[in-house]
Design brief:
This protein has helices at about 1-10, 35-45, 60, 80-90, 115-125, 150, 160-180, and strands at about 15-20, 25, 30, 50-55, 70-75, 95-105, 130, 135-140, 190. It is an alpha/beta fold. It folds into two domains: about 1-55, no CATH class; about 60-180, no CATH class. The strands form three sheets. Strands 5-6-8-7 form a four-stranded mixed β-sheet. The longest helix has 22 residues, at about 160-180. It is globular, with a radius of gyration of 17 Å. The two termini are about 30 Å apart.
Length: about 190
Amino acid sequence: MAFCESAHDFSVAGRFYAVDTWEGDQHVGELEPEIYTNLKEVHDARMGAFSTLLRMTFSEASEHFEDGSVDLLHLDGAHTYDDVRRDVDQWIGKLSDRGVMLMHDVAVKGQGFGVRQVFDELAVQYPTFIFQHSAGLGVVGVGEAISDNFASIFSLNEDETDRLIAFYEVLGEELTERIDTPENRIKVKAVRPQ
């Protein structure tokens, strides 16, 4: 919804899709059914004209998108190496010549997380950038015609990189402090991995 709100606020045209089962996984735990119904109610009322929630797996959803049709892909699904590698392999061809992939949780190590390993593999072939704060966000420049403004993130010097990362880290911390209240927390039942 943050992507949609930004697109709306800055008059960015396009279609947006969120893909998830909204059931949870081994790292998040089992999600209460109300998570999806509450999200859908708010989403559809505010963003339904240009955004769609696809309640399915990433694999199922990939069949609904043409190759080369996606400009921005944010991967934040199951986090094991095999799951992340499968998602990347199924979706990377869907990215357009302007395509950028965002990968959540690149700073998480252990606990069966394989996001960083897949990110590092992609970094051999594509320009990348990492925001290390929180759980980390990896940026992968997959397309060959990424806008110059966006592509500049991949060529920052060390001082510019440090300033950019610090800026977003402070913004993230301030936002987290404002919204991370008991009444805003999602209720999640812990499920032990099999």
